[in-house]
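User: Hi! I have a protein structure encoded as tokens and I'd like to know what sequence might fold into it. I'm fairly new to this, so please keep things simple.
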């Protein structure tokens, strides 16, 4: 006698990632798991390296997290550990993300996992434009093993089709979603933040949130801020700079500010857990990345009611509407970035108007439930193709 369908556990999805820690990809994964109907799919996260306290953001109690503790460089033993882990978990579907975990598709096929999804979430300094010959060859070799691709931006979707050779029918563009209840506009005066003396009366806070790594190019934001500051009367400017995040570029950015005598007008607090509150203390959000998928921090800023100035790369052009909710500028151009920031600082009401429109756009197009439904549709379609009624 067959077991009652209602008594069977929901199918298991294994999410294979490099590391579970602070980052846009990881934030999107946590949001997906937290907002996908629990009765439809179970989830396990397999980290090639490790996980940290970021795991505490997962609200579902049934999510298993496994760290393979892959060593830096070539660690051939981690392939065996990954294969054994997949054989033990026996998921219905595996979902890899970015190049770092894409090789897992081969081991998943060897382990008998028939449903295989791969997501592209953005690029790093080693392959800013997706044209690295070795990486491109690896993706093309693994392409036949992948049942469906997910791209978080239109730019990545077009690249998967034109450069990697994925069939258009096997590629879905699914943008990130944002929690518009947690990230909302300030309801009164901005909260007092930063060290003593950081804020002043009528302060105009230019802010950014993100890992301080080369690809995010925070140094260009610092240089643009210093340019804008140089046009102000010495010692009397209400301009302030807030960069939230940690990473190898933090010390360099702080050194630039110290050398210019602007340390008291800036605050680089490192990684924080109160991002929503810090965003509500900002008046303008700036993201000067050299490459970007679909930025969670841009969406969080928009949900907070902030105008966004961003570099015209990757998924930024999908999110920021120049002249309507923000401005797009060329990457690595402090002068153009400073000019765009100056408009919001100097034109009365512009920041409020564009920020209000940004919030409306998030509410209509970038909800977490819409994102979860789109992923659910991909998983369901693959399941139906292998298990027809």
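Assistant: Happy to help. Inverse folding works backwards from shape to sequence: for each of the 389 positions I chose a residue that suits the local structure. Here it is:
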């Amino acid at each position: 006698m067959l077991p009652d369908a209602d008594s069977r556990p929901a199918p298991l999805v294994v999410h294979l990632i490099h590391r579970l820690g602070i980052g846009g990809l990881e934030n999107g994964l946590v949001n997906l798991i937290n907002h996908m109907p629990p009765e439809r799919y179970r989830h396990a996260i397999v980290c090639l390296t490790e996980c940290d306290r970021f795991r505490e953001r997962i609200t579902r109690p049934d999510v298993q997290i496994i760290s393979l503790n892959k060593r830096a460089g070539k660690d051939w033993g981690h392939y065996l550990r990954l294969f054994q882990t997949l054989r033990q978990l026996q998921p219905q579907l595996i979902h890899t993300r970015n190049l770092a975990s894409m090789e897992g598709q081969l081991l998943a096929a060897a382990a008998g996992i028939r449903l295989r999804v791969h997501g592209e979430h953005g690029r790093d300094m080693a392959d800013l434009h997706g044209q690295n010959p070795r990486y491109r060859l690896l993706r093309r070799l693994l392409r036949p093993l992948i049942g469906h691709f997910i791209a978080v931006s239109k730019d990545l979707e077009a690249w998967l089709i034109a450069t990697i050779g994925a069939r258009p029918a096997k590629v879905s563009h699914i943008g990130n979603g944002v929690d518009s209840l947690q990230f909302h506009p300030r309801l009164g005066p901005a909260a007092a933040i930063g060290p003593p003396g950081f804020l002043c009366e009528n302060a105009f806070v230019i802010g950014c949130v993100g890992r301080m790594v080369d690809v995010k190019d925070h140094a260009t934001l610092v240089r643009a801020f210093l340019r804008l500051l140089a046009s102000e009367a010495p010692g009397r400017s209400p301009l302030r700079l807030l960069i939230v995040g940690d990473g190898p570029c933090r010390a360099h950015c702080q050194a630039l500010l110290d050398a210019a005598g602007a340390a008291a007008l800036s605050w680089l607090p490192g990684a924080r857990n109160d991002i929503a509150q810090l965003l509500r203390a900002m008046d303008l959000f700036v993201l000067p990345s050299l490459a970007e998928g679909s930025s969670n921090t841009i969406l969080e800023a928009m949900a907070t009611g902030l105008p966004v100035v961003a570099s015209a790369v990757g998924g930024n052009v999908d999110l920021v509407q120049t002249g309507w909710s923000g401005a797009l500028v060329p990457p690595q151009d402090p002068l153009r970035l400073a000019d765009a920031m100056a408009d919001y600082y100097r034109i009365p009401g512009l920041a409020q108007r564009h920020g209000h429109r940004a919030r409306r756009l998030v509410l209509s197009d970038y909800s977490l439930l819409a994102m979860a439904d789109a992923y659910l549709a991909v998983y369901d379609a693959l399941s139906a193709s292998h298990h027809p009624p």
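A useful reference point when you look it over: The chain has two domains: 5-177+367-386, 204-365. Feel free to ask if any position seems puzzling.
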